[in-house]
Amino acid sequence: MSSAAMSNDFPELGGAPKPAANVAPVWVARGPGSSAPGSGPASGASTPVPGTTAAPSLSIPGQNKEYLLLHPDDILPRDQLKRPLPDIVKDFNRKSRAQIKIVPHAENMLRIEATGPKGDSTTQSLKDFVGLIGAKLKVELDIHRWARPHIIGKGGATIKAIQEKTGARIHVPKEDGQAAPPGEDDEELIKVTIEGNTQQAAHARNLIYEIMGERAGTVSLTLKDIPAEFYPFIAGVNNSNLKPMEQEFGVQISVPAAQPSSSTPPVLVSPGHPEFSAATDSFIQLRGERSAAKAAKARIEERVQELRNQLTLQAVHIQPGRHQFIIGDKGISMEQFLEETGCTIVLPNDEEDDMVRVVGPAENATVGVQKTVELAMGMQCSNIDISRFYRQAPGGAAVHARNVTRYLRQKRELERLGNLYNVHFNTPFSEQGALPWELYARDGANIVRAQAEIKALVDGHPPARMATVTVDPFYYQFIKKEVLPHVRQTFGVHLVVPEASEPNAPLLLVYEGSSDPESYAIARDQPKQKDISEMQKKLQDARNHILGLMDEREPISSKTIEVPVKFHPRLQKFIKSEQDNASNPIRARVSNTGESVHIRGPSSVVDWLVAKSLEFVEQEKQDEKERGFTLEFEFPQKFANHLIGKGGSHIRELREKFDVEIQVDDGKVQLKGPKAKAEAARTHINGLARQLQDEATHVLKIDPKFHREIIGAQGSQVNKLQTRYKVLIFFPRNNTKSVKDDESAGDSASDAGKARRQQAPDEVIVRGPKRGADEARDELLSLLQYLKDTSFTATVTVQKKQLPSLIGSGGAALEQLRQETGAKIDVPSAKESTEDLVDIQIKGTKAQVAAAKKVLEEKKAIFEDTVVKRIEVPRKYHRALIGTGGSTLRDIVVKAGGSSDQREMARTIQFPKQDADGDTIKVEGRSEVVDKIVAQIEAIVAERESQVAETLDVPVEKHRSIVGRGGETKRSIETQFKVSIEVPRQGSGSTGVKIVGQSADVEKAKAHIEDMVKEQPGETVLVPRALHHVISNNGQIFRKFRTDFGVTVDHAGQAVPPKPAGAMNARANGGSLPLITDDEDAIADAHSWKLVEQTSTEEGDIPWVLRGSPENVEKARSAIQSALDQANKQNAIGYLVLPDPRTYRFVIGQGGSKVNSIRKQSGCKITVPRDQTHGDAIEVVGTKEGVEKAKELILAAVKEGVNSRPSRE
Predict the structure, then answer these.
(1) Residue 1021 in contact with residue 1106, Cβ under 8 Å?
(2) What Rg, from alpha-carbon coordinates, does the chain have?
(3) Which secondary structure element, helix H or strand E, spans residue 1128, and what is its range?
(4) What 3-state DSSP class applies to 69?
């Protein structure tokens, strides 16, 4: 440490020699080239030892010499030293890096020299040696009372820091209640006691004097004896008087703004001689150098005396409602009034007082009064007595008028009317009720308009809409929070709770109805007679509800106890704690006047609190007698920081908790207070020591780049670890500054006393109980390893205008990329960046980062190669370019090398919207792809433009053959011949089939269609009419011929025979169904069966004309013949009805397997109805024997299926 630095830390004390016990040592640091002691230390302080000279000393490079001058009385007597002083010096020098030497000095002083290497070791050696031989001193300092708070510091922080830095103990007397209030000069002296050895006492005294020197220069003064009415005259208009005074004295002067109203207005004690009262709440403040501030104070006091002699008072009686138009928002400012008249205004606080007081010099008073009257009377006024509208109101018209006024005030309806019509309202009350309203406006027409609305509002609120109930004001807060919302929602009644300015007003109930309170419109029409009964019922219900709640509450009582003022702060905290922990939600209210403490609330709560409080006060009085009890015990010095806490926070908490004074000094703890509380505090502190003895500390090497993620947002992650394992985790400060609230993690340990060692940037310290510290360390290292594994990074630079396409709609594209790769991708906001290029950050595992980077770079390459082309294509071709379901568009993009993704295609080719003008198609993408797409579009359009259209006349009955099943034939022709075909809608009667395409293709397609529909020679097969429906199988055979053979069937114009009667809905037993039961066996056996032998009254044959190619016609004819042979054998039809629709599925089986098996075994055709819920029959067609066999197989299948179902309990 340099000579200058040492002089600043331990400057020599000034002043003449004093009695031995209070002689302060002189400490001088010398280094190579430093001045002699007599010339003063490097700090510039003069050496106070008269006639002191220093012997020449040898300056050795790299060596530092310091000395301390001590009076012999500052050294312990020989009988208190363990060994002779020379032996103590020898022993000390053998162990110390610095060498100590004691030599005589002038004035019977001893010079203690320490010589050693530069740095702290020489200083510390000198301190340690003086600690061995120095006598214990008690030094008393006289300091000004104003310096007391600066020496103690906030929460005792400053005095603790001095004690810890010097090793001395400092006692500052407590306030005796006579100190000047804050902001006032206080030169009274108090005594501060310092205890320690000579070096410690000197150091502590120097530090205290330094604080006094720093604070002595600037003082704040408060001038309290000045009337507030003088403030404008002292300050002047726009502070014109203050500015010269501030410049003259070099101080800051703050004069409060003058208030127009006063609770203690000036009074005339004799004509022209008013008496002014001193201000009670706002005062003139001075701040600056002490002597200058006092001079400025004297100047202001002179001015005050001048004003007392100059100012007069003129009183003028003005209607109270007009006072608002003189000074304030609705009048002019006090500054303006003073500037124009040279006077000020004092308005009364009491609404019933009409006296306005004008204060100013005698020569200006008349002008002030004239201006006051002019301002007050500049508004037109009209009165409206709303009580006259309901003179017969129960309880009195004035009382009802007061209720209406209170309601409209709270609803701010009068404020709304005032703003609407530029009218000002004054709505005074008296003890009997509301007085007539006063309406003020500069335009009388506005008053008339406002009166019309007031009449409507009063009409809408007759006495029937309102009710009152008397409730103890103690419960007003409870009613506002708990009762009011419930009553409004349940009964549609709004509650007006009296304000503090309405001490005698009852709780007001106003019926508003069931509408939403937020959207409720104030009633303006008289309620109808039928509505009045509903209003009164709801009001009565609400009133009964409130009274019921109040009946459930205890009566309110008040009690007063006398408690010495010194116990009030602790009693206040005690009562708050007791009520916080109590189960009763209703809290008593506590106030005090002097030594009296008033408790008001529910009787039981008051009684309980009074008893508790008296018990507490008695205990406090007993404790007060034991305040001198002292308990001292050992505490490990290395854990002192933990005991003290950051800024003394922990030790303050302990003092508050145990109500004892706690001092920590050099491995010892001293407790002072009541014995029981001191012993409880000792037990707690010893427990803390045992806990800390088990403490372990781990220093982890963690790269600073991982600190932020380990700490977490606002310290969340590290705080969880600290809480879970009960440890403290410290990060280097320079790495946590950028994270809000994260420093709490690094500052969890105390900063008091000796600071933590400086952490390296890559060090993280874990400290706490060994088990918790070990587990926290392991979890931190696991987290570090995870971060290392997932902290590979990469950067992709892209153009800012590409960001929207990378992010996608609502971030969908970016989120998809994150999901696909698993990487964290941070895309900067386009709005925040001013550059054309932006960096996208990728983080994750090595594989995740590589995958995401590859995709982004591919998209970047595509974007950078992206071009936009616009081509004009007549709108009539747009549909053809898109194709059915976008098929053509997809083919165009994919063939060009583009993506088949729907969103990508939508960005690649954009057609104009249907309601937009223009034919421009926008194509965007890589240049190669765009060029190919444009070429394809142009080719398609060119082809379309060269197309021809021809219409072919085709009979309507042939249209089906062109279209085919599901349009299959039509699509096949279009694909084969590269044409488009438009077939008229069914039922239109049109026969024209339009063919569009290239001329040659149209001709080929036309020839093909003509060939298809050309009337082919047909071959006729005669089918017995009785078997027509059996063979056609409900038309299935015709569809089979058309699909499989391309053969059509018609009947040469003959009518098809009717279907046999009773085919589908035939039921046995007269059509009744068997009963459904819960018996599984009954369900399986129940059925209805009817066997009908096929007979038909139809005679003769019906022609089936087969048209198609010869070979296919032959195939169809053979199929018909086979069906005829089969039909001749099928001479019976069975109709089987099952009662439970759920059992039909057992007949069909999975995928039709069961019914196909039954068909094969029985040789019968079996038709199971589609909708079994209507009781339709299963139709079985075959030989009589086959039909019976099929029935048995069906019933067996049903029984098997029923038995295989899980049984129902």
Answers:
(1) yes
(2) 53
(3) helix 1110-1129
(4) strand
Q: Which amino acid, 537?
A: K
Quote the CA–CA distance of 444 and 424 in Å, as a whole number: 12
Which pLDDT score, from 0 to 100, does residue 729 have?
Answer: 92
Residues 6+ apart with CB under 8 A from 463: 390, 393, 394, 395, 400
User: Hey, is 691 helix, strand or coil?
Assistant: helix
pLDDT tier for residue 1172 given thresholds of 50, 70 and 90? low
CA distance from start to end of the chain? 96
Alpha carbons 285 and 222: distance in angstroms, whole number: 5
Strand order in the sheet with 1165-1167: 1088-1093, 1132-1137, 1178-1182, 1165-1167
Amino acid, single-letter form, for residue 562: E
Q: Which of 514, 599, 525, 537 is nearest to 563 (CA)?
A: 599
55: helix, coil or strand? coil
Chain-centre distance for alpha carbon 136:
59
Q: How far apart are CA 109 and CA 92, in angstroms?
A: 21
* Average pLDDT over all residues of the chain: 81
Give me the sheet containing 1101-1107, strands edge to edge: 1018-1024, 1101-1107, 1048-1050
d(CA 357, CA 228): 14
In this structure, the dihedral spanned by the alpha carbons of residues 132, 134, 135 and 140, taken in order and rounded to 10 degrees, is -130
Residue 945 has which token pair?
């433009």
The residue with tokens 């599925």 is 1145
Q: Specify the amino acid at residue 881.
A: L
Q: CA torsion 770→775→781→786, rounded to 10°?
A: -170
Strand-pair category, 920-926 with 909-910: antiparallel
Q: How far apart are CA 294 and CA 1036, in angstroms?
A: 121
Span 950-979, average pLDDT: 83
How far, in Å, CA of 1063 to CA of 333, rounded? 105
Encoding tokens for residue 1138?
């099952």
- Alpha carbons 462 and 535: distance in angstroms, whole number: 11
Q: What pLDDT, in 10s, does the model give residues 195-226? A: 888 778 888 888 888 877 766 667 788 898 89
617 token code pair = 């006060």
Q: Which two tokens stand for residue 314?
A: 């003129």
Three-class secondary structure of residue 102 per DSSP: strand
Strands 261-262 and 344-348: parallel
Q: How many CA atoms lie within 13 A of 1209 on its CB side?
A: 0
Give the separation between CA 1063 and CA 1040, rounded to whole angstroms.
23
> Rounded CA gap, 976 and 965, in Å?
17
Q: What's the rounded Cα separation, in Å, for the pair 683 and 1202?
A: 81
User: Exposed e or buried b for every residue in 19-37, given b needs 16+ CB within 10 A?
Assistant: eeebbbbbbbbbbeebeeb
* 931 vs 925: CA distance, rounded Å: 9
Question: Using CA atoms, how far apart are residues 123 and 897, in angstroms rounded to an integer?
Answer: 83
- CA 1165/CA 1133 separation, integer angstroms: 10
Residue 1201 gets the label, from left (phi > 0), alpha (psi -120 to 50) or beta, of: alpha
Q: CB–CB of 318/375 below 8 Å?
A: no
State pTM to two decimals.
0.43
Instruction: With CA atoms as reference, report the closest residue to 1016 among 1081, 942, 934, 1113.
Output: 1113
Whole-number Å distance between alpha carbons of 698 and 763: 10
Share of the chain above pLDDT 70, in %: 87
Give the separation between CA 1162 and CA 1160, rounded to whole angstroms. Answer: 6
